[in-house]
Amino acid sequence: MKKIVSDIHNAIQNSRKTIEFLTQNSSWTWLANYPIAVVNEITRIKDEESLKDLQKISFFDSQGFSKSSYTEEEIKYLIHNVPTAIKTAYCLCLKQKHNGEYSFREKFQHDRWKKITDEANFEALLASSKFDDSDTSKVIETELRDIMRSSKEIPSLKAIGFVWIVTVPKTLKIEDILEHYFLDNHIFVEKGRKITYIAWADKLADINMRYFVNKP
């Protein structure tokens, strides 16, 4: 994880386009808007227009369930045309170049989502947040916890490294949140009136979410 964090730190220092910089200057493969779940059953789609758009790519089989495998083109179609039928992550760091196929599976037959599977190639999950002067410590902690909780629901993400890139005004102090969830695993980059923190854990599952900094 230290080398991954070093690459991210270098990208933030040298470019406003973090993912593009990583793609060109890192030994790992970095994919933004990585698909992590697709809707599992036709009954979950309530909007007629969305249903029509899904039928154009034969998204559901004769039993009303979605497929388990998708091409790059199909994923792009879902993201642009039926975003309610797919969940994406800010960025995934992969060990090797992606083969262009995405596989998903559900745990139980009528689950709301089929979840991404490719554990062997996953290295780390990146999440990104930005806040301004009007945001409070409680708002910031809530967003972080929402990101981690939803990611932990996906077994293949729960088992890998996690990096949170968060940009705040210098007037906002979030060290207590960083230390609570990430201990000493956080560094920062100062740019003008803002600070970008990079916080990480070797494994998302190991982050303790039992206790809060701000009372819920």
Q: Helices and strands in order, then pairings?
A:
Blueprint: H1 2-14, H2 18-25, E1 29-39, H3 48-55, E2 69-71, H4 72-81, E3 86-94, E4 101-105, E5 113-116, E6 122-130, H5 137-152, H6 155-158, E7 161-169, H7 175-182, E8 186-191, E9 194-201
Helix pairs in contact: 1-2
Overview of this protein structure:
The protein has helices spanning about 1-15, 20-25, 50-55, 70-80, 135-150, 155-160, 175-180; strands spanning about 30-40, 70, 85-95, 100-105, 115, 120-130, 160-170, 185-190, 195-200. The chain is α+β, with helices and mostly antiparallel strands and about 220 residues long. It has one domain (about 1-205). The protein has a 9-stranded mixed β-sheet, with helices on both faces. Helix 1 (about 1-15) packs across helix 2. It is globular.
Provide a brief overview of the structure.
The chain has 216 residues and is an alpha+beta fold. It has helices spanning 2-14, 18-25, 48-55, 72-81, 137-152, 155-158, 175-182, and strands at residues 29-39, 69-71, 86-94, 101-105, 113-116, 122-130, 161-169, 186-191, 194-201. The mean pLDDT is 96.
